[in-house]
UniProtKB/TrEMBL annotation:
Membrane topology: Peripheral membrane protein
Top-level taxon of the source organism: Bacteria
GO MF term set: ATP binding
Pfam families, per database record: ABC_tran
The protein, known as: Amino acid ABC transporter ATP-binding protein
Organism, as annotated: Streptomyces yaanensis
Length: 247
C-alpha cells in the first residue's frame, strides 16, 4: 500500500451500455507520486483519468480522495474539481480572454481570491511555464504548445492536491511536445501528485514512479518504469512495447 494515499480506486467498474470500459480497477496513488497510465487505444485510460474528478461517473466500486469518497454533486463536487486539476488534449482556453485572464478566472470565481492577488499568482505561474511575456495575448495568438502550457498554469492556479493529464501532448505538433513535457517533468521534480495518460514513453521512463499498463479495461501491470520497460510480464505488455518502442 502507498504510504500516504491521496487517490484510491477500489473495485471500480464503468459501463457504456454493454461496453465494460473499466473492469474492477484497483489503484492507489500516493501523495507526491507520478503515475503514468499507458496502453492501447480503447483500453480505458482516459475514462480512468476522468473518473478521478468525477467527469465520468462509475457504476460500482469506490474512489476516495484523502480517504473520503468523491462527492456526488453541488459545492462539494466543485471543490473536488478545484482540488484535482485536469489538463486535457484540447486546451479549452477561453478565446475572448487574455492568457492572464484565463489563468486568474477560476481562483477568483471558485476560490474567492481578490483579482490583484489572483493576477499576481497567475503571473508567477506563467513565469514557471515560461510564458510570462505572453500574459496579455489571446489564446489564438499562441502556438499549441504555448496554449497547453497556459492550460497547465491555469490548473496550477487552483493549488490542486493532484493533477490529471489526459494525453496532454497528443494534439500537438512534434516540435511542441517537448516544451510541454519539460513543464510536466519540472512539476514531477517539484513533488506534484500526477496521474498522466500519455503515449510519451520517454516521459514515462524518466519521470514516473510507477507505470500502469491497461488493456481491455483492466490494469494488467502496475510496476516501476525500470521493471515494466525492461521485463514486462504480460504478453499484452510485450506486444504493446514491441509496437511502440522503436529499436
Amino acid at each position: 500500500m502507498a504510504v500516504d494515499p491521496l487517490i484510491e480506486l477500489d473495485g471500480v467498474n464503468k459501463w457504456y451500455d454493454d461496453l465494460h470500459v473499466l473492469q474492477d480497477i484497483d489503484l492507489t496513488v500516493a501523495r507526491g507520486e507520478v503515475v503514468v497510465v499507458i496502453g492501447p487505444s480503447g483500453s480505458g485510460k482516459s475514462t480512468l483519468c476522468r473518473t478521478i474528478n468525477r467527469l465520468e461517473t462509475i457504476q460500482s466500486g469506490t474512489i476516495r480522495l484523502e480517504g473520503r469518497p468523491l462527492p456526488q454533486e453541488g459545492k462539494a463536487l466543485a471543490r473536488l474539481r478545484a482540488d484535482v486539476g485536469m489538463v486535457f488534449q484540447s486546451f479549452n482556453l477561453f478565446a475572448h480572454k487574455t492568457v492572464l485572464q484565463n489563468v486568474s478566472l477560476a481562483p477568483v470565481k471558485v476560490r474567492g481570491r481578490k483579482k490583484e492577488e489572483a493576477d499576481r499568482r497567475s503571473m508567477e505561474l506563467l513565469d514557471r511555464v515560461g510564458l510570462a511575456s505572453q500574459a496579455a495575448k489571446y489564446p489564438a495568438q499562441l502556438s499549441g504548445g504555448q496554449q497547453q502550457r497556459v492550460a497547465i498554469a491555469r490548473a496550477l492556479a487552483m493549488e490542486p492536491k493532484a493533477l490529471l493529464f489526459d494525453e496532454p501532448t497528443s494534439a500537438l505538433d512534434p516540435e511542441m511536445i517537448n516544451e510541454v513535457l519539460e513543464v510536466m517533468r519540472q512539476l514531477a521534480r517539484d513533488g506534484m501528485t500526477m496521474v498522466v495518460v500519455t503515449h510519451e514513453m520517454g516521459f514515462a521512463r524518466a519521470s514516473a514512479n510507477r507505470v500502469v499498463f491497461m488493456a481491455d479495461g483492466r490494469v494488467v501491470e502496475d510496476r516501476t518504469p525500470e521493471e515494466f520497460f525492461t521485463t514486462p510480464r504480460s504478453d499484452r505488455a510485450k506486444d504493446f512495447l514491441s509496437k511502440i518502442l522503436k529499436h
